[in-house]
Amino acid sequence: MSPRWEPNPNIRRGRTVIYTLHAHLVFTPKYRRGPFTDEILTRCEEIMRAVCADFETELVEFNGERDHVHLLVHYPPKVSISKLVGSLKGVSARRLRHEHPDHIRKYLWGAHFWSPSYFAASCGGAPLAIIKEYIEQ
Fold this sequence. Notes:
Layout: E1 12-13, E2 18-19, E3 21-27, H1 38-54, E4 58-65, E5 68-75, H2 81-99, H3 101-107, E6 119-123, H4 128-136
Antiparallel strand pairs: 1-2, 3-5, 3-6, 4-5
Helix pairs in contact: 1-2
């Protein structure tokens, strides 16, 4: 078989689309107060993997520190990043507050867990300079 036809696990197929879309997401808790422990980060990853599965996306990588988390998601074109982010933040906030109320109350007050803002960057594929050159020609 030609190398051109070897299956690539990063390229997904739908009924009418072939895609490989990745996004780097960063969330910070309200006031950037740093409520995360190793146990809470592990649980946050589990929750976010389940939410991604509901959206038919893949959480490729997850990591965090005391005051923020990083996610690398592989998502289909039918998924809106803003809706995915809303669900990731909403579900994780509800569950983490419910499962660790005393610890989180020390760092965060009021009804909010996550800051309303987030960072999102597309990633993967060829560098922009190469794509620009390809389109020009």
